[in-house]
Write a structure and sequence with these properties.
Blueprint lengths: L12 H13 L12 E5 L2 E4 L4 E4 L2 H4 L8 H13 L11 H13 L6 E6 L2 H16 L3 E5 L8 H6 L17 E4 L19 H13 L6 E6 L15 H11 L3 E5 L23 E4 L10 E6 L18 H37 L5 E7 L2 E6 L10 H14 L1 E2 L1 E3 L3 E4 L7 H18 L2
Parallel strand pairs: 3-13, 5-6, 5-7, 7-8, 8-9
Antiparallel strand pairs: 1-2, 2-3, 4-10, 9-10, 11-12, 12-15, 14-15
Helix pairs in contact: 3-9, 4-9, 7-8, 9-11, 10-11
The structure holds pyridoxal-5'-phosphate.
The site of pyridoxal-5'-phosphate (PLP) has 14 residues, from helix 5.
């Protein structure tokens, strides 16, 4: 079994120098939580610039779906790079963009023909969905959720309600957006318990919101992450999306699924909304779509994507190299990685639940496929958030060679590449157990 190898103090000498230079020249707005300076990666394994070896359970923030530098993705990139680097899918046609659009349109759930818009990132995919919803419906109001992260451009940031630091000093935002509580059952915003709650968080929308402040006929769309990502890897109960979608349909409100983090096979299905049996009107995609090459996509039914030539575009969107990387990625997902995500995700959750029996601080273990979160608390009864402990755990894991990230205020997220093996899951669990032993309770 392969284990991380940490040969220097962290950060090592090379990394320390580079971190210093970075401090001088790189934007201080980035949120580096530990000083990892990456040199190269293969699969789930990363060497830093001092040749320390790490096991990566972050996948570059849920991006490297096929692992670092999967040979088939690298091959597709190399071949495309030798043929054509750029021409702009905005003004010209080329095969990789057309082929990828056809593929994504065929994968998206629901009846009828779909069309695809290409951008370069998650924020751009959401921004495009936001603009299309307004263009198509002419509605000026939108609903989004507390805890939601949809990106940092001004439109996407207006929908985001994850952390105030992301919004501080940027007001005013796009008007007409109302944030409502998400189905966060571990901390039910209505102080109820599932299933006795009868899904109050959904019914409240129709019973209260539409009768008091939001005329439903003026609402363009509901923007929702099928599983909340940055907000804390929160998995809503089985009926949540179906019932909310029913309300949206009743009032002709578009249902926009932000699958930027939860999509592309990570949860064991191509789109996580498929677990809920809902066909959204619009889907936003990015992150895992092209194994690390920059690409965002927005998929909508053809009767919704009615905007006219010139109404939205991006010079780099749908870059041919990124599109080829996406086609290779999707092939790998379909050939077994999606199924592996489900199998290994179950193993990971089972192992974490086993650890939970010994560690009081592991308040909640939840997830679907390889989108797994552990919410840390000071006390299981009061559920007081243990944010500092979370940060300490992640730092200690780094020191032991296991790369993890946080999400929400006090949750550790596990989002490894979908290529993760049984052995790698077990090494992660064993290292996480060591870290809990050292700093947990
Ligand atoms: N939507 C979701 C659900 C995300 O998780 C993210 C990023 O974390 C975004 C949108 C924004 O993506 P990007 O950082 O590529 O703009």
């Amino acid at each position: 079994m392969r284990y991380p190898e940490i040969k220097t103090d962290l950060p090592g000498p090379q990394a320390s120098n580079l971190v210093q230079t970075d401090k001088t020249y790189v934007s201080p707005s980035y949120t580096r939580i530990y000083p990892l300076v990456v040199k190269e990666g293969q699969g789930l394994w990363i060497y830093d610039v001092d040749d320390n070896l790490f096991l990566d359970f972050t996948a570059g923030i849920a991006v490297c779906s096929t692992g670092h530098c999967h040979p088939k993705v690298v091959q597709a990139i190399k071949e495309q790079a030798e043929r054509l680097l750029h021409m702009s899918g905005t003004d010209f046609y080329y095969v990789p963009q057309i082929a990828l659009a056809e593929k994504l349109a065929s994968l998206a759930p629901g009846e009828g023909i779909k069309k695809v818009y290409f951008g370069n990132s998650g924020a751009e995919a959401v921004e495009a969905a936001f603009k299309l919803a307004r263009w198509h419906t002419r509605g000026e109001l939108n609903i989004a959720f507390f805890g939601a992260f949809h990106g940092r451009t001004m439109g996407a940031l207006s929908l985001t309600a994850s952390k105030t630091i992301q919004k501080k000093h940027y007001y005013p935002f796009v008007p007409g957006i109302t944030h409502i509580p998400y189905a966060y059952c571990y901390r039910c915003p209505y102080n109820l318990s599932y299933p006795q709650c009868g899904l109050e968080c959904v019914h409240w929308v129709e019973d209260t919101l539409f009768r008091t402040t939001m005329p439903p006929e003026e609402i363009a769309a509901i923007f929702v992450e099928p599983i909340q990502g940055e907000g804390g890897y929160i998995v809503p109960p089985p009926e949540f999306h179906r019932e909310l979608h029913e309300i949206a349909k009743k009032y002709n409100i578009l249902y926009v699924a932000d699958e930027v983090q939860s999509g592309m096979g990570r949860t064991g299905k191509m789109f996580s909304i498929e677990h809920y049996g809902v066909a959204p009107d619009i889907i936003a995609l990015a992150k895992g779509i092209a194994s690390g090459m920059p690409l965002g996509a927005m998929i909508a039914r053809e009767d919704i994507m009615t905007w006219e030539a010139g109404s939205h575009a991006s010079t780099f969107g749908g870059n041919p190299v990124s599109c080829q990387a996406a086609l290779a990625t999707i092939q790998l997902l379909e050939e077994g990685l999606m199924a592996n995500a489900q199998i290994q995700g179950e193993r990971l959750i089972k192992g974490l639940r086993e650890l939970q029996k010994s560690y009081e601080c592991m308040g909640d273990v939840r997830g679907l496929g390889l989108m797994v979160g552990v919410e840390l608390v000071k006390d299981r009864e009061t559920k007081e958030r243990a944010g500092e402990l979370r940060n300490k755990l992640i730092y200690e894991a780094f020191r032991k060679g296991l790369l993890l990230l946080g999400c929400g205020e006090n949750t550790v997220r596990f989002c490894p590449a979908l290529t993760v093996s049984e052995e790698e899951i077990d090494v992660c669990l064993s290292l996480f157990g060591d870290v809990l032993k050292a700093v947990g309770w």
